[in-house]
Amino acid sequence: MAILVIAEHDNSELKPATLNTVAAAAQMGGDLHVLVAGAGCQSVADAAAKIQGVSQVLLAEDACYEHQLAENISLLINELGKDYTHIVAAATTSAKNFMPRVAALLDVAQISEIIRVESADTFDRPIYAGNAIATVQSLDSIKVITVRTTGFDAAAAEGGSATVRAVSMLHNAATSAFVGAEIAKSDRPELTSAQVIISGGRGMGNGENFALIEKVADKLGAAVGASRAAVDAGFVPNDMQVGQTGKIVAPDLYIAVGISGAIQHLAGMKDSKVIVAINKDEEAPIFQVADYGLVADLFEAVPQLEQQL
Amino acid sequence: MKVLVTVKRVIDYNVKVRVKSDNSDVDLNNVKMAMNPFCEIAVEEAVRLKEAGIATEVVAVSLGSKVCQEQLRTALALGADRAILVESDEILESLTVAKLLQKVVDDEKPGLVIMGKQAIDTDNNQTGQMLGALTGFPQGAFASDVKVDGDKVQVIREVDGGLQTVSLTLPAIVTSDLRLNEPRYASLPNIMKAKKKPLDIKTPADLGVEVKSHTRLVKVSPPAERKAGIKVASVEALVDKLKNEAKVI
Ligand SMILES: Cc1cc2nc3c(=O)[nH]c(=O)nc-3n(C[C@H](O)[C@H](O)[C@H](O)COP(=O)(O)OP(=O)(O)OC[C@H]3O[C@@H](n4cnc5c(N)ncnc54)[C@H](O)[C@@H]3O)c2cc1C
């Protein structure tokens, strides 16, 4: 019995989502191996070897894995995966891209975005924008699983001493090519791992006004998020969208500014520890999930908030 | 080039679903159903490719019970040329849907398959990618821009860090994200015209695919409810609560 966890990384750093995934995998029971597939990613493998509970790191390095192209990575995991009971990855856009391909190649189901491990073959996962939780039992011999990282505390990043083994399996489907990327650079914490998030919605009015909440974010060391409406309107880029079909977050503090609280938005943030809503409409549904609601014009309240922090 | 576009019948996105009291599933009795919003975006993209002279024919496919014809008629009203329903009353898991679609792809030989990235009922986000693996086609998942250029398609993808551009060799699969386009509404004349467009019905047996369960739904539970909070009167009161009561700042 061994479990293969797929590392999330950018070829230089291991992403924290991997730690939550390892923690979820540990609850499934079995020896834990981590696959690091990429190019020039030895440092990632070294970091993965230190994760508590991991016994082996498999390192697959080739140019064709550099950008995590689903066509190539899925073939690699398909070959390696036959020796495992579970193949587990964080539900990031990268793994969501290649994991279903792995499942189909292995002729098994994928259980998406689990939030709890009930047993080695039974898992809880939200459906219908989190308005119901399904308990699903896998009937397959190999379980392909993506993990909603907010459902699991991170495994310790230090303390382990796994061996690193190079695997020289080359799978280049040669049907896809990476052309380029526009990756947002920010000094703020990443949305999915931030302790504090302040998000703006359509009520912000335009992109420039996001400066108001950025100032609050700077004081709180917070990440900045947004509703779909704010992204669709072009106020902010797509990687800031929180919700059913954007990022799922669960910080200690989530401040929703000028966001009405549609179910699709709530699906992405209602597991936050403390929720604050600032909205001028006292009937806005966001107040039904907010621990602290302030009925106010955001253009007055947000600058005041910044001053008082 | 022929474009195949897939359409799923799901609960209307404005409806908040309830769990049945026996926890066997969610209650879909008398609930408004509609085309999955991501499938609407997929249909729109296919129709735009036809309007741009890139697609020669748009074929809409749905899989499920007889009532899915409604959503196929909607796709036809939005501009698809013909439709195929793979009819089954059984629960069709994503892998089965992908296998059925693989057979439809074998028959139809589309240059591009456009699908929604996710259905808002199961929230699985997997069928397009699974079809990619079964057909061997490359995929542009979570697409916000699609440009066909000769025997390639360039897709801009919404990823966690921002945007990624990939170039895929056709035939390929694209799954739509929210920013791909803004779907049109069907006009009344087009709704009338759609009634006369061809809609073929096939069964999984016709396609030679066994409907198999890879999972068992043990139970469905309501999510944990949040305790009702309070309204604060001022920013001062808010800051005080966050510091001294919630202790989060
Ligand atoms: C398939 C699908 C997927 C979706 N996925 C997501 C998702 O992942 N994430 C998401 O967020 N949405 C998603 N949505 C969209 C969702 O349904 C809502 O449309 C969206 O969340 C609304 O954003 P909003 O709250 O910013 O805008 P609105 O609903 O327009 O709310 C704006 C709010 O701002 C308040 N306001 C305005 N001016 C001020 C002011 N001066 N001061 C204080 N308050 C003010 C208003 O009172 C109002 O409550 C999805 C929808 C669909 C169909």
TrEMBL record, chain A:
<keyword id="KW-0274">FAD</keyword>
<dbReference type="GO" id="GO:0009055">
    <property type="term" value="F:electron transfer activity"/>
</dbReference>
<comment type="similarity">
    <text>Belongs to the ETF alpha-subunit/FixB family.</text>
</comment>
<feature type="binding site">
    <location>
        <begin position="241"/>
        <end position="245"/>
    </location>
    <ligand>
        <name>FAD</name>
    </ligand>
</feature>
<keyword id="KW-0813">Transport</keyword>
<feature type="binding site">
    <location>
        <position position="279"/>
    </location>
    <ligand>
        <name>FAD</name>
    </ligand>
</feature>
<feature type="binding site">
    <location>
        <begin position="227"/>
        <end position="228"/>
    </location>
    <ligand>
        <name>FAD</name>
    </ligand>
</feature>
<dbReference type="InterPro" id="IPR014730">
    <property type="entry name" value="ETF_a/b_N"/>
</dbReference>
<dbReference type="InterPro" id="IPR029035">
    <property type="entry name" value="DHS-like_NAD/FAD-binding_dom"/>
</dbReference>
<keyword id="KW-0249">Electron transport</keyword>
<feature type="domain" description="Electron transfer flavoprotein alpha/beta-subunit N-terminal">
    <location>
        <begin position="3"/>
        <end position="182"/>
    </location>
</feature>
<dbReference type="InterPro" id="IPR001308">
    <property type="entry name" value="ETF_a/FixB"/>
</dbReference>
<dbReference type="InterPro" id="IPR014729">
    <property type="entry name" value="Rossmann-like_a/b/a_fold"/>
</dbReference>
<dbReference type="InterPro" id="IPR014731">
    <property type="entry name" value="ETF_asu_C"/>
</dbReference>
<protein>
    <recommendedName>
        <fullName>Electron transfer flavoprotein subunit alpha</fullName>
    </recommendedName>
</protein>
<dbReference type="InterPro" id="IPR018206">
    <property type="entry name" value="ETF_asu_C_CS"/>
</dbReference>
<comment type="function">
    <text>The electron transfer flavoprotein serves as a specific electron acceptor for other dehydrogenases. It transfers the electrons to the main respiratory chain via ETF-ubiquinone oxidoreductase (ETF dehydrogenase).</text>
</comment>
<keyword id="KW-0285">Flavoprotein</keyword>
<dbReference type="Pfam" id="PF00766">
    <property type="entry name" value="ETF_alpha"/>
</dbReference>
<dbReference type="GO" id="GO:0033539">
    <property type="term" value="P:fatty acid beta-oxidation using acyl-CoA dehydrogenase"/>
</dbReference>
<comment type="subunit">
    <text>Heterodimer of an alpha and a beta subunit.</text>
</comment>
<feature type="binding site">
    <location>
        <begin position="258"/>
        <end position="265"/>
    </location>
    <ligand>
        <name>FAD</name>
    </ligand>
</feature>
From TrEMBL, chain B:
<dbReference type="InterPro" id="IPR014730">
    <property type="entry name" value="ETF_a/b_N"/>
</dbReference>
<comment type="function">
    <text>The electron transfer flavoprotein serves as a specific electron acceptor for other dehydrogenases. It transfers the electrons to the main respiratory chain via ETF-ubiquinone oxidoreductase (ETF dehydrogenase).</text>
</comment>
<dbReference type="InterPro" id="IPR012255">
    <property type="entry name" value="ETF_b"/>
</dbReference>
<feature type="domain" description="Electron transfer flavoprotein alpha/beta-subunit N-terminal">
    <location>
        <begin position="23"/>
        <end position="211"/>
    </location>
</feature>
<dbReference type="Pfam" id="PF01012">
    <property type="entry name" value="ETF"/>
</dbReference>
<comment type="similarity">
    <text>Belongs to the ETF beta-subunit/FixA family.</text>
</comment>
<dbReference type="InterPro" id="IPR014729">
    <property type="entry name" value="Rossmann-like_a/b/a_fold"/>
</dbReference>
<dbReference type="InterPro" id="IPR033948">
    <property type="entry name" value="ETF_beta_N"/>
</dbReference>
<comment type="subunit">
    <text>Heterodimer of an alpha and a beta subunit.</text>
</comment>
<keyword id="KW-0813">Transport</keyword>
<dbReference type="GO" id="GO:0046395">
    <property type="term" value="P:carboxylic acid catabolic process"/>
</dbReference>
<dbReference type="InterPro" id="IPR000049">
    <property type="entry name" value="ET-Flavoprotein_bsu_CS"/>
</dbReference>
<keyword id="KW-0249">Electron transport</keyword>
<protein>
    <recommendedName>
        <fullName>Electron transfer flavoprotein subunit beta</fullName>
    </recommendedName>
</protein>
<dbReference type="GO" id="GO:0009055">
    <property type="term" value="F:electron transfer activity"/>
</dbReference>
